[in-house]
Amino acid sequence: MAYKIVASQCTGCGACEFECPNKAISEKGGVFAIDPVKCTECEGHFDSPQCASVCPVDDTCVPA
Fold first, then answer.
1. Over the stretch 28-61, which tens digit does the pLDDT of each residue have?
2. Could you tell me the CA-to-CA distances from 21 to 8, 9, 29, 32, 36 in Å, in that order?
3. What is the C-alpha to C-alpha distance for residues 31 and 34, in angstroms, rounded to an integer?
4. Burial (Cβ within 10 Å: 0-12, 13-18, ≥19) of residue 4
5. Which domains are present in the chain?
């Protein structure tokens, strides 16, 4: 299952984009989005999804 970014809660800080090992996160209009085809929840790279780990706003990066 992929993760998603709740657009209404995203502050556009960009912290998640650089942490994603699969380059699944991109910015459009100041809000970031996760490509569900590329997202692996960081399996094989980290113990937990890095987008959720580095996001300064709780419950912004969540399972889709």
1. 888 899 999 999 999 999 999 999 999 999 999 9
2. 24, 23, 22, 16, 14
3. 10
4. middle
5. 3-63 (3.30.70.20)
| Structure token digits, residue 35 | 């490509």
CA distance 21 to 9: 23
SS3 57: coil
Specify the pLDDT at position 1.
Answer: 83
* H or E, element range at 33: strand 31-34
